[in-house]
Design goal:
Helix 4 runs antiparallel to helix 5 and helix 9 runs antiparallel to helix 10. By secondary structure, this protein is α+β, with helices and mostly antiparallel strands. Helices cover 40% and strands 20% of the residues. The radius of gyration is 25 Å and the shape is globular. The strands form 3 sheets. The protein has an 8-stranded mixed sheet with strand order 7-6-5-10-13-8-14-15, with no helix packed on it. Strands 3-2-1-4 form a 4-stranded antiparallel sheet. The chain contains 12 helices and 15 strands. The relative contact order is 0.10.
């Protein structure tokens, strides 16, 4: 492996290889000394630093890393069970998400220690990282409703209707907290390990907040009983294997506002569906003069124009970000796509680093340098 560029930051340092691969490592004193004193001079001398593929795997203990980032886990949490989760959060620079996750666990720990232990047991088997808001992603099989293919039902009773955007919930007291019972009352969410033994018409990606986890069966810690989950999307790949770009998208996306709340009554199959009104700002009252004339003031016109411009700019940025992700994923762009990125940068009057982050910006610069 050849390292051709390094970006040193306070939390993580980014290494870029000659193949465009991006490696993030913790900015600890050991790593920084090695990079500054060994790697950087070698890059200046030869334009690259050659090393083994595993040369930058952190050999520091997980406890040292937690101390370095100022993160304190609840005392009843066995660190080794979530070491892979912690290291992934550090590697992906999701330190804030890791801190929020641990803070949520501490709050739950005051009321339900067994729920925190359940959460950690589940995370031990999870192949998905925690989100930037400190929440958990999981999987759930659902079947199509007889009424519509846009409406799904649970695989057990085939009664509880839900769809993408639904928040499904039940009273916390109706969820069985007994970990000795394998299959019991509650809303079930699974890790990837659990999927091989079950099936359904579709596989949904769901979001669960740590405070909504109630229990994990002792006999099978790859599934959890929760009192609430939100359906984020239906996965195109029924195997549940998300690409790195898809994982990055979902863990960095703020929890979306629900479209509806599906509330199950106790331990029954009865439920209610309550649409969620999207919050809109209070409209500014028109003056009597505006009402009488039927005209819109210059200020109002300017506000409308600015709002439309902001919406268009946001949509454009998402399109451009997709192109940057495509470059990282496939290693190539068309000439037209390159020009779109350059035109967007020119119009935004910002640097590539400011628009897309240093790793993506460096990858793009390297790519256009090569094809030129």
């Amino acid at each position: 492996m050849r390292i051709i560029n390094i970006v040193l930051c306070s939390n993580n340092s980014t290494l870029i290889t000659d193949t465009g691969k991006i490696i993030n490592i913790p900015s600890t004193s050991v790593n920084n000394n090695f990079l500054i004193n060994i790697v950087v001079p070698e890059i200046h001398k030869n334009n690259f630093f050659e090393c083994d593929d595993n040369a930058f795997v952190s050999d520091e203990s997980i406890q040292d890393l937690l101390v370095h980032y100022g993160i304190e886990l609840p005392k009843n949490v066995k660190t080794e069970k979530v070491e892979h989760v912690i290291r992934e959060a550090i590697r992906s620079e999701n330190i804030e998400g890791l801190k929020l996750f641990t803070e949520k666990l501490k709050k739950v720990n005051k009321e339900r220690e067994f729920s925190v232990e359940s959460c950690i047991d589940f995370m031990e088997h999870s192949d998905l990282p925690i989100t930037a808001e400190g929440n958990i992603l999981g999987y759930k099989y659902l079947n199509y409703s007889k009424d519509s293919k846009n409406i799904f039902v649970d695989c057990h009773t085939e009664k509880i209707q839900q769809k993408v955007g639904s928040v499904v919930k039940m009273d916390i007291k109706a969820v069985d907290p007994n970990r000795a019972v394998d299959c019991s009352y509650g809303l079930h969410v699974a890790s990837y390990d659990y999927l091989k033994d079950f099936g359904g018409d579709i596989l949904a990606l769901v979001l669960v907040r740590p405070e909504d986890i109630i229990s994990v069966p002792e006999s099978d810690t790859a599934k959890i009983r929760v009192c609430k989950y939100q359906i984020l999307t239906v996965l195109d790949n029924k195997e549940g294997k998300l690409s790195n770009d898809e994982i990055s998208f979902w863990i960095n996306l703020p929890a979306p506002l629900p479209k509806e709340v599906v509330e199950i009554k106790g331990r029954t199959q009865e439920f209610t569906v309550t649409p969620v009104q999207q919050k809109n700002p209070e409209p500014k009252k028109k003056s009597k003069k505006e009402i009488k004339s039927g005209k819109i003031s210059k200020e109002k016109k300017s506000s409308i124009v600015n709002n439309v411009k902001e919406i268009v700019d946001n949509l454009k940025k998402k399109d451009i970000e997709k192109l940057m992700i495509k470059l990282l994923d496939t290693g190539e762009l068309t000439q037209n796509e390159i020009q779109q990125i350059l035109n967007y940068k020119k119009k935004a009057k910002k640097s590539l680093n400011a628009l897309f982050g240093t790793p993506r910006a460096n990858c793009f610069r390297k790519y256009i340098g090569e094809i030129e």
